[in-house]
């Protein structure tokens, strides 16, 4: 099957605009993709194309990430979930499937709790079920507030910040015990990642910090829609997959490919589509 064309657009929502990428024929029940922090929907381009070959698929830029307008104040995951529904409404979509990964998984989870009647299927791809110490470390260190300066130090910071996401987990604990031992992405992919972070330099941290504060273990048992939990073998959050599975009532569990690589996304799309369409 030919690789579908990705098209981009904006929708007006309260407080600004949401940017999105879409692929596939605009018929049937669409799949909404919610990306990991700190990038944008561009990070899920391989999955967008792989799923777009099977169904109408839309990758949103989370509010305050990529090209989407930020939310005001100090938003929590419930606010990002509500903002997701505002974007879905603006797109004229009544019923959909939701797929979120990492930070996007928290947003998709809360969105499914807010409006379960509108969610045909939910896919939660990796979620960090941290203890209180890990949670506080993420709040304190994972997404620092960065502002441009006259020396342009933000450019050097962003490159190393994005690069280190592939080297360590978490990125700020640069120790051998935290090495990921995976291949680095192609320079072009890393460049795109850095550019997306720079676009939202002063607001990228909002969703990241909200995900760290999100009471995941309390909220996951409230999910009432048909749910799959997934992870690739190489994802550092795979260690939480079994617990994640146990917390979501009636969920099914799957090992999938890496969603940010072409081959991994194609493999994952086969598993996801079988779950969505069954």
UniProtKB/TrEMBL annotation:
SUPFAM superfamilies for this protein: alpha/beta-Hydrolases
Keywords: Hydrolase
Keyword Hydrolase attributed: yes
Superkingdom of source: Bacteria
InterPro entries, per database record: AB_hydrolase_1, AB_hydrolase_fold, AB_hydrolase_sf
Pfam families: Abhydrolase_1
GO function term, MF aspect, one: hydrolase activity
Residue ranges of every copy of the AB hydrolase-1 domain listed in the record: 30-127
PANTHER family with a match to the protein in the record: MONOACYLGLYCEROL LIPASE
Name of the featured protein: Alpha/beta fold hydrolase
Organism of derivation: Pseudogemmobacter lacusdianii
Biological classification of the source: Bacteria, Pseudomonadati, Pseudomonadota, Alphaproteobacteria, Rhodobacterales
